[in-house]
Amino acid sequence: MAPHLTGGALLFGPVRGRPLWRAERAIAYKKYFCKLDVYTYICIVKLENALLSTKFSSEVQKASLNVLYSAWWLKSITSKELKDFDLTHEQYNVLRILKGKYPDQLCVKDIARRMIEKSSNVPRIIDRLEIKKLVKRTVSESDKRETLITITKSGLSILESSTSKLNKLHDCMQNLTEKEALQLNQLLEKMRQKETD
Questions:
Q1: Which top CATH class is 76-197?
Q2: For 62-66, 78-82, 169-173, which range has the lowest pLDDT when averaged over its residues?
């Protein structure tokens, strides 16, 4: 069933969305024809609508809140896709890191340094991935106290499938041109200039 608008709301099959604020019809159809296996509602709103607040001390404060809210939004929609592969964001992140060094191995410390969320419990994440047979542990020949991690063929396979689905999702959900994305990356990196380890 194709999505359609009715009474200011968007319907995806049996799911009714909230009122639309801008021209979401084209976006809704774009999402539908991307043939994603998700029943979700797209609603583009300003930060004021999302937080139900119009009081910001400055545009800088609003930008900071916008980054936090956008990160939550992006993580939420990707989590739904990763759930189909029985993966969490952190597990997916570890698989990507290991794929980047494959066929070389990485120690836990090196994986932790590359994580998006620096507070992640990497040993525990690796435990879960090992149970699923997506990664393999070996003892370092040069240092018996050090454990090395490598991604397995099953890990490579599920990473390829999940990444393909996430790429399709992002292609449908993102409304930025390459030029706009470049500008956004530059601004975010400028925002983190004073970042400390």
A1: mainly alpha
A2: 169-173
Phi, psi of 124 (to 5 degrees): -70, -40
Cα–Cα distance for residue pair 100/43, rounded to 1 Å: 34
- pTM of this structure: 0.74
**In sequence order, what DSSP letters do the residues of 124-158 get, joined into one string?**
HHHHHHHHTTSEEEEE-SS-TT-EEEEE-HHHHHH
User: Half-sphere exposure of 136 toward its Cβ, with a 13 Å CA cutoff?
Assistant: 13
Amino acid found at 148: L
Domain layout of the chain by residue ranges? 76-197
Cα 157 to chain centroid, rounded: 19
Establish whether the linkage from the previous residue to 103 is cis, with ω within 30° of 0: yes
